[in-house]
Design brief:
The protein has 13 helices and eight strands. With 312 residues, the chain is an alpha/beta fold. It is elongated.
């Protein structure tokens, strides 16, 4: 499997609540460790990464330096819209046009307009490799997009096509074409799904692959299954544990410990059965162990990065 870090754009998505931001942060750390100038981009004005690194959150749309070679940004849609309009040129300033009620109506009504503005900002950030050497700040080698949940992410990825169908000529059509080229080129972009070992999350991952193929002719580079529990007991050991639970005279604490061991073992078995669904479809599957910590802090994210380092 070729490295995901040999691309300009790495899109990370999956079902909501499965740990996309955690995994995006870990991937950013790994890329920065390789010497790549990397930015992890959040959408929806989240700004969770600076807080994770103990840095005050900047204004939406501003870049924050997290550590050497690693930055983050939370896209401010209004600001991105204004920058996009200014880039289109013309005598009317982006600020004036963005405040126009006519344009606001158009942006709200046109299919994929808001998603396209977000993706244009992503595309601009990916141009860093082409700008390297042009001054001190040369841009970024890799953009890690901490994308929204699957449905919204697919809408963003499809926005160049849907919006391009409206604007068939001119600078907007040109930008839509450049975005489609980036998203469809396996040498420039890559897609990672994050899931948990649950039936719903794995089913959504399978649907994500189907839609990626339909929309972009692309496949998932890998599926990262987060929060995997270890399979600590063999089948004979589980039978012995069950026999202990059936023995009379056990204390309440002992019975609780036996029940906990059985429950965790059953959950781990179910998770691995769900991973088997992915492997039967020939996905590259990477399991990330459950982090037994009260709070998922930067130390835990670094441990996850080390686990991914051996597999990516």
């Amino acid at each position: 499997m070729t490295s995901v870090f040999d691309r300009e754009l790495l899109v990370v998505t999956g079902k909501g609540g499965v740990g996309k931001t955690t995994l995006s942060s870990a991937l950013g750390l790994l890329a920065a460790e390789r010497g790549l100038r990397t930015i992890v981009v959040e959408v929806g004005e989240q700004s969770r990464l600076p807080l994770l690194f103990g840095i005050p959150a900047p204004d939406p749309g501003d870049e924050a330096e997290l550590e050497q070679n690693l930055s983050s940004m939370s896209i401010d849609l209004d600001r991105a819209l204004m920058e996009w309009l200014q880039s289109l040129g013309g005598r009317v300033s982006g600020r004036v046009l963005a405040s126009s009620s006519t344009f606001q109506y158009f942006a709200a009504a046109a299919p994929g307009a808001k998603e396209l503005v977000t993706m244009v900002k992503i595309w601009e950030l990916t141009q860093g490799r082409r700008r390297r050497g042009r001054g001190r700040d040369g841009g970024y080698d890799l953009v890690v997009l901490d994308a929204p949940a699957t449905g919204h992410a697919l809408g963003m990825l499809d926005s160049p096509r849907t919006f391009g169908a409206i604007a068939r000529v001119g600078p907007i059509a040109g930008q839509a074409d450049r975005l489609r080229e980036l998203l469809a080129d396996p040498d420039r972009s890559s897609y990672l799904a994050v899931a948990q070992g649950t039936e719903m999350a794995i089913t959504e991952t399978l649907e994500l692959q189907q839609k990626l193929d339909e929309q972009l002719g692309r496949e998932l580079h890998a599926v990262i299954v987060n929060g995997m529990l270890p399979q600590r007991f063999s089948a004979p050991e589980l039978r012995q544990i069950a026999a202990l639970g059936d023995s009379p005279g056990r204390s309440a604490a002992a019975r609780s410990a036996i029940a906990a061991a059985q429950a965790v073992s059953e959950r781990a078995r179910f998770q691995h059965n769900q991973l088997a669904r992915l492997r039967r479809r020939h996905f590259e599957v990477i399991g990330v162990p459950f982090q037994f910590t009260a709070e998922l802090d930067l130390g835990a994210v670094r441990r996850i990065a080390e686990q991914l380092k051996r597999k990516l």
